[in-house]
Amino acid sequence: MSDNPNPQGKGLRPVLAFLEESRAPALMAQPKQIKQISLELFTSLFVLESDFKFKPVRGNSYWLYQKNGRFWLSPIRPDEWNERVYGRYIGECELHEDMTWSLEMCEEAAADEQLMASLEQRWASFEEAMEESETVEDALPRYQGQMPFYQRAYAFALAHSLRASMQGSGIQALTYHEAQAQLPDDSGADA
Question: What whole-number percentage of the chain has pLDDT above 70?
């Protein structure tokens, strides 16, 4: 019997290295206005709330599915297996260099009124939470103990990156409404 309780070297050191690696893109974060930040935050949290048990890589595509009321993220394209395995295909996701996620919904999912109504309801709840936050920075995810490791780590990296973007545009200390008031008025752009 070994006296080393951790003979495989698992533990805090790899976790800290992963978190530091995830924070690095924030150093290059570009300033963003509240409209872009809120959309990226909403989309990223939606993807991070899905189930997955792998380490996503920046710049790669992944595929979102829905089965039994749950969303699942997979590295396997929908043409590579049967719908019975992972469920209905929702769309293609990408983890960007700045740790934000994008989701391009497939035509079938975008035409699903029930799914779109559910997303609109999520958006309304998200906006309400943004409005209730003292500042836009306060709306960023904090420690998400209920999330599995990778989702929790990527939420941390997302918050770090968006915080840097907000600092670059000078909106981190503003309320959601104050940040929106700084957006250019394009209501007369088509006139």
Answer: 80
Residue corresponding to tokens 């006296």 = 3
Whole-structure pTM value: 0.82
Amino acid residing at 116:
M
Strands 61-67 and 88-95: antiparallel
Q: Which segments within the chain are labelled E, that is strand?
A: 61-67, 70-74, 88-95, 101-105
DSSP conformation class of 78: G
What pLDDT shows up at residue 65?
95
Digit-coded pLDDT (tens) for 65-108: 999 889 999 999 998 887 777 789 999 999 998 999 999 999 99
Among 177, 172, 183, 182, CA closest to 136: 172
CA 143 and chain centroid, separation: 14
Of residues 36 and 22, the one with the higher pLDDT is: 36
- Phi, psi angle pair for 7, to nearest 5°: -65, -20
> What 8-state DSSP symbol labels residue 70?
E
Residues 6+ apart with CB under 8 A from 162: 29, 32, 37, 40, 41, 100, 140
Is residue 5 within 8 Å of 139, Cβ to Cβ? no
Mean pLDDT across the chain, nearest whole number? 83
DSSP β-bridge partners for residue 63: 74, 92
Could you give the CA distance from residue 26 to residue 147 in angstroms, rounded to a whole number?
A: 22
